[in-house]
Please model this.
Amino acid sequence: MFRSGSAEDGEELLTKLGALTARARELAQMQRSRVELAVALQQGMLPRDLPQPPGVRLAVGYVPANRGLNVGGDWYDAFTMSDGRIGLSIGDVQGHNIRAAAFMGQVRVGLRALASVTGDPGELLSRTNDLLLALDADLFTTCTFLRLDPATGTLECARAGHIPHIWATADGRSGIDDGEGGPPLGVLPGASYPVTRHRLDTGGVFVLPTDGVVEGPSLDLDDGLAQVRRLAEVTAAAGLGVHTLVGGVMKLADTVGHEDDAAVLVVGHDGDTAWRHPPEE
Model:
């Protein structure tokens, strides 16, 4: 009988295997730590509480991309502005790493800070775009910003390269926003962002998703938006409420077939407070 190697060779091989295993565990732990840090950054920069003006209902859904190596930079925000109106934003930062998560925080803070200077959604996005370019961060983000007047139900919207939002009314009408938008923030100096106006009817809803909710290997964007539209239409017509709608949208996000962030912000009116008609322009 012949032996393929000495006992010393076997021990050397086991030592090398042990070292490789230890190194693999070290790298895996390092990646876990990075993911945990990025998720902590994301969670820490998102709002803990949402405004609750009379009659208006807000609900959010958010699942970070913390599987494998993916860590995204989706965010949502809602806050009361100095004039009593409600600022609403949702966006998606380029990339899937800690830098994307940190940049997300800069964008969200920048939007809030600049909202104290101007409340107009188009001008606000323009100023935020200039700010991000001045930071020279080599990253960009898509974003939708809405300003809601809780006294009248008037919604003003500007989009920066972001997917359109969806609306539905209690009488069974629904649609996907077809208003013109501008480029993503942090890309083009001097970019402008047109503003479109809508009205949140009693019992109606507006749904602001990120692309992780409606697009992926198993679902193209048009089909994803159409499915959210159907969910919004049924929910509004049946009066099921914004939290039910968020639950349905996030279940849809589970079917897109990828590990991107998924976030959605839903605005609704429950009919407890009558809208005041907006002044004639």
About this structure: The beta strands are 56-63, 74-80, 86-93, 141-148, 154-160, 166-168, 174-176, 196-199, 205-209, 262-269. The CA atoms of residues 235 and 241 lie 7 Å apart.
